[in-house]
Amino acid sequence: MYSHPEITNVFLDRKESFGWHDGQQIPGASLQVSMLKDLVSLSDPTNAFSFLAYLHSLGRIHHFLNARFDAVPRQEFRNYLEWASRKNPNIVFGDEVLSVEFDEVFRIRTAKRAMTADHVSVAVGTRPWVPPPARRNLGDTQFHVSEFVGKARRLAGLRVGVVGGGQSGAEAFLDLISRPPDQLPRRVSWISRRPNFLPLDDSPFTNDYYMPCYSDHFATLDAAARHKFNTDQVLSSDGISEATLRQIYQRAYIHRFVDGSPDLIALYPNSEVVAVTGGGLTLTNNDRQHRVEFDVIVWATGFRQARMDFLAPIEHRLEREGDEYKIDQSFAASWDGPGDHHLFLQNAARRQRGLADSNLSLIAWRSQRILDRIRGVRTENQLASFLEWSVKPATDELQGA
User: Fold this and answer.
1) What is the DSSP letter of 37?
2) Separation between Cα atoms, residue 81 and residue 79, nearest integer Å
3) 294: which of 241, 328, 363, 395 is 20 to 30 A away, CA to CA?
4) In terms of DSSP H, where are the helices of 19-71?
5) pLDDT for 301-320, tens place per residue?
6) SS3 for 12?
7) Residue 335 bridge partners (DSSP)
8) What is the pLDDT of residues 349-391, one digit of tens each?
């Protein structure tokens, strides 16, 4: 919207200042997607809010190229996002939205003001999630990986467990086993209910799942097919980068065979936490249970959709699809209100839009589609995938061949 000043807008964030996974900025962590999957580039490569524009504005674009990073350092991407937030004067921090009502226009009440809008876009994202048995124990010795940077300190000599077989768990585990000798825990265990510590599927045809045309195709499938896809293809989004797995294996080799510390590392794939008692976890593996004691537990168990209680005044007007608000092709909620006023929902329709809905890949395209809907235009001109996602009726020519 910055490039369309005729559309007045304001962006509200309850945080006092910008933040993006700040508690999870583990040294050495990197993005799992291309730097071109930034806020704008895949919809408008000339946009002044691109990652390349950020590098150029700070005079470091040549240095970045010379560094030849295999992947963008996550801290650098976080800094890019903060730069973009400073560049947009319409972003307001420290103001929480309390309610959204509708009376001919949307009426938004925040902690500091009241305002009206023709359209509202909700992008509250996700929040840390831990399994119910762990919630009563959260604190300084058991915490979600989103608090890792602040809480995973001074662990020398302690027994530490990391629960979760995705990228976040891998990064936490790698950090713990890579510390200087005088800062190493006594033992570090990594627990995953997956059958092994599995890599991200970053192959070319799998990445077609993260194209706009597949997102549109996915939305046409029935609920059962969509659920099966999200389950079967989860490693295209939530697998572990091969570089991270390689570093972990190399550190395991060094500790066992070079440094002579054979019991520093314990790996528990195919193991599910079934009970949390004090500092101990009961794990089940092929119907066999065993208990492991820890001094500190890091829960790398993912995120879930954040609550949207501020929509309560109009919730009865919004159509649902399962546990999600139903959206259309422009990410507008299906509701009984007038067709020229829209409530857009971002990163809130994984069951309707697939794994890419919570991924960086389609941020720019999704934002463009929302902007197009507001402006009453359609600007997409991308070519279709190489893959035929749905069966087309045979032509007469093919039928006669």
Assistant:
1) S
2) 5
3) 241
4) 51-57, 61-67
5) 999 999 999 999 999 999 99
6) strand
7) 318
8) 999 999 999 999 999 999 999 999 999 999 887 899 999 998 7
β-pairing verdict for 272-277 and 120-122 = unpaired
Helix axes 167-177, 242-253, angle to 10 degrees: 30
Question: Are 165 and 298 contacting, i.e. CB atoms less than 8 angstroms apart?
Answer: no
Q: 140-155 as b/e, with b when 16 or more CB fall inside 10 Å?
A: eebbbbbbbbebbeeb
Is the pTM higher than 0.90?
Answer: yes
- Give the Cα-Cα-Cα angle 158, 161, 162 (nearest 5 degrees): 135
Contact 163, 299 (CB under 8 A): yes
Query: For the chain, how big is the Rg over CA atoms in Å?
Result: 23
Given pLDDT bands bounded at 50, 70 and 90, which one contains residue 396?
low
C-alpha distances (whole Å) from 5 to each of 2, 35, 90, 375 are 6, 27, 11, 12
Structure tokens given for 111: 């902690």
* d(C-alpha 3, C-alpha 354), whole Å: 29
- Distance of alpha carbon 190 from alpha carbon 174, whole angstroms: 10
Separation CA 331–CA 338 (nearest Å): 16
Q: How far apart are CA 51 and CA 122, in angstroms?
A: 24
Question: Residues 271, 192: contact at Cβ < 8 Å?
Answer: yes
SS3 19: coil
pLDDT tens string 36-52: 999 999 999 999 999 99
What's the angle, vertex CA 237, arms to CA 37 and CA 54, rounded to 5? 20
Q: Which two tokens stand for residue 55?
A: 């590098």
- Within 8 A by CB and 6+ apart from 255, the residues are 177, 261, 262, 264, 265
Nearest to 119 by CA among 265, 240, 11: 11
How many residues belong to the chain?
Answer: 401
- Would you put residue 73 in left (φ > 0), alpha (ψ -120 to 50) or beta? beta
Burial pattern 248-278, b for ≥16 Cβ within 10 A else e, equals beebeeebeeeeeeeebbeebeebbbeebee
Q: Are 355 and 227 in contact (CB under 8 A)?
A: no
Structural contact between residues 191 and 268, judged by C-beta atoms closer than 8 angstroms? yes
Q: In this structure, what token pair is assigned to residue 303?
A: 């995120």
Residue 259, SS3 per DSSP: coil
Contact 47, 57 (CB under 8 A): no
